[in-house]
Amino acid sequence: MSYKNLFGLLLFTALFCTGFLINGNLGLYFNASGLLIVLGGTAAAALLSFKVEQLRIVYRVMKASYHHPLKSETEIINILIDLSIKSRLDGILSLQKEENETTILFLRRALGCLVDGYGTEQIRDILNTEMYFFKLRREELQRILRSIGDFFPAFGIIGSVVGLIAMLNGIGDTSILLKAVPIALTSTLYGLILANFFFLPFAANLRERTNHELLLQKIITEGVIAINSEVNPIILKTRLESFLTPSSRDLDLVSYRKIRERFNIELQEKNNLEPVC
């Protein structure tokens, strides 16, 4: 998570909590019975729906997504250009060192194919297959997070029903009503907060990270294939910069004068132009 995201998160979380404090104190919104119903019910439903190993993978991936930022597209392009220059000077086998040192697993996989002498189509097929199943695995993790996010409001409603039953049982007894009302109201509150403040944003964050990683993998695929084909590093740089937004590209636009000279375009005065019917 970037510092800007962290600062925004802390700021708006403070505003969110302030909304609770305006009409009372945070103690009014805490109810152990409602919290146990929501957390316990959701955890049980998650364990019935998914394997423990799947839940562990979700935890590890989410932890990595917030603690280990990805490289930018520009950084990946610069790495590939450096590798291209090195391969032209010292040969493809010189990339063996880079294969062992790089921390990007997909790039290591691609360089491994390159060093082992696979053909262009074989490299493309292997890396596209890797990308396809990577996307499938990430979509499965997103589905798990969204499912857990859907469990929370459902068990919040269950907690509310439990509170309503206790209220009906305590009609005429004020002490029972005062204990039952917080369960009915806070259970729904907990379910909505845990779903919409945590798990659904977790799923959205994982989707955005996956899309970014897929873009980096496409850049790596095109770069490694170009290196294997011994494409000129200047041409490779131009090709890979097509993946970047115009504002991120480090190149100057060709002037209109050079375009006219290259294609032998002559400017005509307005008074020499014939009207178009």
UniProtKB/TrEMBL annotation:
Bilayer-crossing regions: 29-50, 151-171, 183-204
Residue stretches making up the MotA/TolQ/ExbB proton channel domain: 106-214
Keyword Translocase on entry: no
Superkingdom, natural source: Bacteria
Membrane topology: Multi-pass membrane protein
Keywords from the named record: Cell membrane, Membrane, Protein transport, Transmembrane, Transmembrane helix, Transport
Broad class of where this protein is predominantly found: membrane
Keyword set includes Transmembrane: yes
Compartment list: Cell membrane; Membrane
One of the Pfam families matching this protein, by short name: MotA_ExbB
UniProt family annotation: Belongs to the exbB/tolQ family.
Protein name: Chemotaxis protein MotA
